[in-house]
Write a structure and sequence with these properties.
The chain is of the alpha+beta class. The chain has one domain (5-233): Gcn5-related N-acetyltransferase (GNAT) (Aminopeptidase), CATH 3.40.630.30. It is built from five helices and 14 strands. The two termini are 32 Å apart.
Length: 238
Amino acid sequence: MKETGIVILDEVENCPYLDGESARMPLRMPLKKLTPEGIDQLLYDGNRRTGEFIYQTQCASCRACEPIRIVSHEYKFSKNQRRLLNRGDRKFTQRFGPLCCDETRLNLFNKHRKLRGLAKNDLDIDAEEYTWGFVRSCFDSFEITYWLEDRLVCLAVCDLGKTSLSAVYTFFDTDFQADGLGTYSILKQIELCQRRSIDHLYLGYYIADSPHMNYKSRFLPNQRLIDGRWISFHSKKK
C-alpha cells in the first residue's frame, strides 16, 4: 500500500534546474510515520525528500526530470572507477552518523554551492535553512562524511528504506575537486548497497540538458522512470 501525504505547498516557480522553465513540485507532509517499506514505495514512484516533506515534479509542459537509480547487484565498477575508489580510500576517512548542523558543515555547504555555481544569488544559507532542508527528516536518514585527517572535505545526506538507499544531496570542498569527491561519494554509496544487500541506490533526477544533473548518466547501467516505467540504460545514449 502506497504511503500518502497532505499537500502543504503547491506553487509554480522558476525551475531550479533549467533556465527559462517553470516548475511545479508540490510539497506533501506524510500523514503518518513512514515505514521502511513505505519509503521504498515512495522512491519507486519517483518521490524525493526535502526536510520533513516529500515531493514529485508535476510540471505542466516539461518532462525533463527523470528519476534515476542504480540496481546495485548489476553494477560493475570500471577500471577508472576502481582506481578512483582505491585512491580515495587511501587518502580519506569515511564516517557514518546522524544528520546534524554545525559551523563546519554549513561553511562547507555554502562554499560548494557558490564555487560550483549552484546558488541563484550570493546569499549564504543559515543554520535554520540547512536544518529545515536536510536535518529535519520524515525518512530514516543519516550522513556519510569524508575527512582528510581532521578536515571535513565531503558530506552525503542519505535516506534509507528497507531495500533502497537515496542519495539526497552531496557537497564537497572544491579545493579537492581533482580528487573527484562527488563521483567518489556515489561510488562509495554503491559499494555500501552491495555490501549490505540493498537493491537500489536512487540518485534523484537525471536531466539531460542540465550540466549539474546530467553527470548521473555516467553510472551505467542505470534505470530511469519514464512514463511510469523503470527503463534500463546500458550506454550513454539517451
